[in-house]
Amino acid sequence: MKHGDVCHDSSDEDGEKFVETDPTGRYGRYGELLGAGAVKKVYKAFDNRQGTEVAWNQVSLRRFADDDAMMGRLFNEVKLLMALKNDNIISCSHAWNDSKNMTLNFITQICTSGSLRDYRMKHRRVSLRTLKKWAKQILVGLNHLHSQQPRVIHRDLNLSNVFIDGHNGRVRIGDFGLAAVAKSKNEVLRSVVGTPEFMAPEIYEEKYDEKVDVYAFGMCVLEIVTREVPYSECDNVVKIFKKVTSGVKPRALGAVKDLEVKKFIEKCLVAAAARPTAAQLLEDPFFDGISDEDESFVLCLDFSMLMTDDKNCNLKQLMSKNTNGHGAIVDVVLSH
Question: Known catalysed reaction(s) (predicted)?
Answer without folding.
Answer: L-seryl-[protein] + ATP = O-phospho-L-seryl-[protein] + ADP + H(+); L-threonyl-[protein] + ATP = O-phospho-L-threonyl-[protein] + ADP + H(+)
